[in-house]
Amino acid sequence: MKYGFHTNVLLHWSINYVGSVYSFYAQGAYGIPWTSQSGSFLDVIPTIDIAILLGIPATLIVANVLLNRILGVK
Fold first, then answer.
1. How many domains does the chain have?
2. What gap in Å lies between CA 16 and CA 29, rounded to an integer?
3. pTM for the full predicted model
4. pLDDT tens-digit series, residues 15-63
5. Residues near 38 by Cβ (< 8 Å), separated by ≥ 6?
6. Domain that holds residue 56
């Protein structure tokens, strides 16, 4: 919430949008029916990439803030 509610909503929307685009691409490119729940690798890979690209830096930032508070560093 540091940067505002609108930023969080846009980030959440963009993450969901990227996963959906790759899912639709996989369905169209490989002839997968639109109603199937195939779990295509093109649907899973962006989700894992986004979780890693956002999760690791976020974890490091939180750990840094906590350590600075515990150690009293300004």
1. 1
2. 20
3. 0.42
4. 778 777 777 777 778 777 666 665 666 667 777 777 788 888 888 998 9
5. 26, 27, 32
6. 5-71
